[in-house]
Amino acid sequence: MPIETPLTSLLGIKHPILSAPMAIIAGSRLVRAVGDAGGFGILGGGYGDKDWLEKETIELQASSAPFGIGFITWSLAKRAELLDIALDAKPRAIMLSFGDVRPFASRIKAAGSLLICQVQSEDMAKQALDAGADILIAQGTEAGGHGASRTTFDIVPAVIDLAAGRVPVVAAGGIADGRGLAAMMVLGASGVLLGTRFYASVECDGAEEAKRRICAANSGETVRGVIFDVSRQIWWPAPFTARTLINDHARRWMGRETELVHNVEAVAAEYATARDAGNYDVAAVFAGGAAGLIHDIPPAAEIVERIAREADQILSGQRNFPGTPLAVSSR
d(Cα 278, Cα 172) in Å, to the nearest integer? Predict the structure, then answer.
């Protein structure tokens, strides 16, 4: 049975499951697959590659399912013309993360798109609501890629209380199966946003070796910090840091970040060479704490359907964790 929430009604979708706008690797193929399965796919506009964005939005215009397009807000501020390309594709929503949304909010809403804002604190959530956000995504530190320090079980109910029913709140961070969706709904969320789980899917444009490493990772084998941003010479504003799988490069520099900054030119050259060669002992796999729950690389549609089914069965008392129905008493 579909799980109906204020989020599903607002977005016009069957399941309260959103795929995260992972920069570049969340392309039109993944967005369409998630949308066709009844979820809501969000294109990963990332730092703003104009040629890539134009190509992928053309592909999305043929989609019959609603979709979104996401940007890193502080980077979009440097290339605001990219928002016009995105809005020309008629997305159901634009998602903005990591920065002040106010310069873009009126343009987004005037174009007829919903405004989704990802936040990591109550202050960010209040600013987003004041700017006219239609949906809030409360992101916990367990999330892969960039985020802040509050845990999912801390930030989600805090933002729900702040929103007080004015807009749907979506939970993000460390969620990869139906248990996560069910748990967040019990907290009051209207749905979930998943990144790492959809990274390890057939339609994601990430490297197959990166997907394999996500599936091989155990719980606790991710780290949040600045090592990979410094190594790429991408200077993120505070308080945002990146969560990745732990690899040889992370082990080399953990606890030595100041030394890394002092040697950044040489390290950046080494890093770029490794990244271009697909050497993930050095290059980052941006993945969250949910990696330890991920063991396969199925089609995105199977992920959506599996999570929706598991959550429905958990919430209705038919099972208590994936794959195991609850015993039925004969009395």
Answer: 28
pTM of the model: 0.94
Angle between helices 28-36 and 300-315 (to 10 degrees): 40
User: Is residue 230 a contact partner of residue 256, using CB atoms and an 8 Å limit?
Assistant: no
Whole-angstrom Cα distance, residue 93 to residue 90?
A: 8
Q: Which of 144, 123, 147 is nearest to 240 (CA)?
A: 147
The residues near 238 (Cβ < 8 Å, ≥ 6 apart) are none
pLDDT tens sequence for the chain (331 residues): 689 999 999 999 999 999 999 999 999 999 999 999 999 999 999 998 999 999 999 999 888 899 999 999 999 999 999 999 999 999 999 999 999 999 999 999 999 999 999 999 999 999 999 999 999 999 999 999 999 999 999 999 999 999 999 999 999 999 999 999 999 999 999 999 999 999 999 999 999 999 999 999 999 999 999 999 999 999 999 999 999 999 999 999 999 999 999 999 999 999 999 999 999 999 999 999 999 999 999 999 999 999 999 999 999 887 666 555 544 433 3
SS (H, E, C) 260-321: HHHCHHHHHHHHHHHHHCCCCCCCCCCCCHHHHHCCCCCCHHHHHHHHHHHHHHHHCCCEEE
- Within the chain, strands assigned E span 17-19, 40-44, 67-72, 93-97, 114-119, 135-139, 145-147, 169-172, 191-194, 222-225, 241-245, 319-321, 324-325
- Contact of 197 with 176, CB cutoff 8 Å: yes
CA distance linking residue 46 with residue 205, whole number of Å:
14
